[in-house]
Design a protein that fits this description.
Blueprint: H1 4-32, E1 44-49, H2 54-69, E2 74-79, H3 81-90, H4 92-97, E3 100-104, H5 113-122, E4 130-132, E5 136-138, E6 150-157, H6 164-168, E7 179-187, H7 195-212, H8 222-226, H9 229-238, E8 246-247, E9 260-262, H10 265-268
Parallel strand pairs: 1-2, 1-4, 2-3, 6-8
Antiparallel strand pairs: 4-7, 5-9, 6-7
Helix pairs in contact: 1-2, 2-3, 5-9, 7-9
């Protein structure tokens, strides 16, 4: 007699096989064709792959689906030592065609992944290059113009959610309606940060780290709040740029089937 847990394990096994089969078929279709709704503008995109080789497998879905809708894109993969060889092997066909480049990150002063990601973003200042997170799947072409600043989505106003409300109150420069913005997709759209703005972003990130270690953030919140250090710094400081900010999506949820969707691997461990 099968018990309930054994039955559930069998169901999960079948579900996993079905998902793997679907992903394999999708990957073949994306690689062998270009979407009829594709956009042929030239796009330079960047994906950071560090710490965990599983991000390379996730990035395969992101890269190949993105190229299906943006066939003239060039995507640079910024890798650390654990991911570099895996990335070169996984994307050898795309590298040969010139759609993918693999670059080793300079590991200066033992920066953590959030500092590396923020510095990668700041290096895009003044360009129309786009940052993409690895755990994305594209179901359509970018509808927003890359001639303006855009994020993936506006998540919430800081004043509406603790402990971000308390954290925001410690930054005098923030307007009351400041928001947390998702940087899974981001571009400056050609906007050039001034030296003062660059300094402000790095300073905000450092101050945010100090706040996490203070009693302002409860012990049970520290891990979750600490995961968005670079996101908070960029979100907060973008409020001072005095330019219009746009968003790819009006709302977002894990694997929601939108124009671009995320499995939120880093936060939840979920995969496509």
């Amino acid at each position: 007699m099968w018990d309930y847990l054994s039955f559930r394990r069998l169901i999960r096994k079948f579900e996993s096989l079905h998902i793997q089969r679907k992903n394999s078929l999708d990957m073949s279709r994306w690689r062998e064709s270009v979407s009829p709704t594709a956009k042929y503008n030239e796009i330079n995109a960047h994906i950071m792959l560090v710490r965990d080789v599983r991000y390379v497998k996730l990035a395969e879905i992101c890269v190949i689906s993105f190229l299906h809708f943006h066939p003239k894109a060039i995507i640079t993969l910024h890798c650390d030592e654990p991911t570099l060889i895996h990335a070169k092997n996984t994307f050898h066909n795309e590298i040969d065609r010139g759609n993918v480049k693999v670059r080793a990150l300079e590991e200066k002063n033992h920066r953590d992944w959030q500092e590396q990601k923020l510095e990668l973003i700041l290096a895009m200042s003044g360009t129309k290059d786009i940052l993409l997170d690895a755990d994305l799947r594209w179901n359509g072409a970018i509808s927003e113009s890359i001639d303006k600043v855009f994020f993936l989505v506006m998540e919430f106003e800081l004043r509406d959610k603790s402990p971000f409300r308390e954290i925001a109150s410690l930054f005098d420069f923030l307007p009351q309606d400041s928001s947390m913005k998702n940087v899974s997709v981001f571009t400056f759209g050609g906007y050039q940060l001034t030296k003062k703005e660059l300094t402000a972003i790095r300073s905000t990130m450092n101050t945010y780290r100090e706040i996490i270690d203070s009693p302002t953030v409860g012990k049970l919140d520290k891990v979750a709040v600490g995961r968005v250090i670079e996101q908070f710094a960029l979100s907060a400081c973008s409020e001072t740029w005095n330019i219009k900010i746009s968003y790819i999506k009006e709302s977002d949820a894990p694997m929601d089937g939108g124009i671009v969707e995320s499995c939120y691997f880093g936060a939840t461990g979920g995969t496509f």
